[in-house]
Design goal:
This protein has 577 residues and is of the alpha+beta class. It is built from 14 helices and 31 strands. The chain has three domains: 276 residues, BirA Bifunctional Protein, domain 2 (2-Layer Sandwich); 137 residues, YbaK/aminoacyl-tRNA synthetase-associated domain (YbaK protein, Alpha-Beta Complex); 100 residues, 3-Layer(aba) Sandwich (Rossmann fold). Helix content is 27%, strand content 29%. Helix 1 packs across helix 11 and helix 12 packs parallel to helix 14. The two termini are 26 Å apart. Bound molecules: adenosine-5'-triphosphate (ATP) and magnesium ion (MG).
Amino acid sequence: MKMSKMYIRTLREAPAEAVVPSHILMLRAGMIRKIVSGIYGFMPLGYRVLRKVENIVREEMDAAGGQEILMSALQPAELWQESGRWGDYGPEMWRIKDRNGREFCLGPTHEEIFTDIIRNEVSSYRQLPVNLYQIQHKYRDEARPRFGLMRSREFVMKDAYSFDRDEESLNESYQNMYDTYTRIFNRCGLEFRPVEADTGAIGGSASHEFQALTENGESTIAFCEKCDYAATDESAVCVDAPASNEEMLPLEKKSTPGTKTIEAVANYLDLPQSRTIKALLYETYDEEGSVTGYVAAFIRGDRQANETKLINALGINEYQLAFANEEKMAAVTGCVGGFTGPKGLHDCKIIVDSELPGLRNLCAGANEADCHYINMNYGRDYEADMIVNFKLVGEGDVCPECGAPLKFKRGMEVGQVFKLGTKYSKAMGAVYKDENMKEHEIVMGCYGIGVTRTLSAIVEQHHDDNGIIWPVSVAPYHVIVTVVKQKDEEAMDLADRLEKELSAKGVEVMVDDRDERPGVKFKDADLLGIPVRITVGKKAAEGIVEYRLRTDDQSVELPVGEAVAKAAAFISEGLSH
Ligand code: ATP
Ligand code: MG
């Protein structure tokens, strides 16, 4: 296609709010346009990339036995009320009413809809297993939409749901999707890592996230170099320190004026921070946002808390936990800001981290201003309502599998696979009859890919200072033919010939025949990230062109026939894996 006829608007500068390369470059290349915060439109070249990623997903899902369907993005509240998630989902859900006041949401995900279809249409074991998927816009009113397509409020997701008769069959479906995701992300040219993931309040079942490795990703991955343990930091297990065999010393109250932080009290009493207990004060909310109670969580002073684990242990949703208003909590529970300890608190849930009971003679707040206890011991001096391992793993902590030190990397979650079990089939009555006409709940799995986020991940991993470097498999066009002097007829003839011959070999070609200076054309070709550039320049009359890969600095002069053969071979190689 001739660029003079295409709608492409590149920008010299991206708006200041764009701070990560993928956002900056996709805006500058005119591939996406912002509508409002977190909502983007796809322009012609961007849409071509999106469709290519979608098609890779589609081909691999179909090859794995999935069947594509398309449900509505609009979902009636009733289905979500049945599963119990209408309340659970919280402020991320876009809720709307029709003209008669009936409630709907714009689907953030589709478990309810798919379960509803299956419960109405599947009744026998003979109809199982089933894997249905769709590629569709999802809506989440994210608290902090940012980084362009990385965290947006409207995004394209591929969501698949598997329905099996038992756990064993689910395990097969799950492995099938896991392997399919591996193929999909390989074909998209991503460097990624599947890691163990948090399963949320559902608990028990397995889940993996597929993390594209990139500095600008929002996830932290903990991994072991010695064994293959890898998990997101929110799901990684932080191993308890070994229990101490010290004698319990007598509990003693100490005056510790003004020592409101762990650092201050440890310095004042000349203790390592690992001999102190840190208090974290939370309040919990119901679905309407009213405070339902207080939680005091205690952890070794030098550790960080993993709130996901607290939330899971409490069996609530993320939006139902926040740091407490200390004054209000103090009035109810007797805590004292900066001097809170587990002894003497009342009317709140006390959660103690799993390693504290094994440790001896620790220092903790005395629930009295300017006072701490020393030689606090679990069992003798304080107790817990819940003992939970809610320590956040730190770099260098020991691997829970083999004991070697853990390393950290940044990643971007591009997909997640999940063994759901019977959560939805139980709540919504999706059952089948076995060979003996006995009824069972259908065992489910769900599998998401952030299709638009995958575009961000690809650009994060494939770019340089001049622009995007698309992998061949997802490039909007494979080859750009840059005509230096579009008014030169011989040059344009040669460009036409290149376009024809390459197209005949299945190569997608755009010809830059615009009335622009060559410098502008070269800059745009680099910015757009087309994998191969063939320049028709000075030696056009001799049938000689310049051939350059987007990844190379140098171009080589080649007779036009050779350039065609070389480009076609390069593209077909790029498409073959
Ligand atoms: P996150 O933890 O990043 O908010 P999630 O775990 O809530 O994502 P899932 O429910 O697992 O997301 O959705 C499946 C996939 O959809 C994710 O793996 C991710 O790639 C993509 N995704 C989720 N939220 C967004 C978003 N706001 N913008 C773009 N893609 C998203
Ligand atoms: Mg996820």
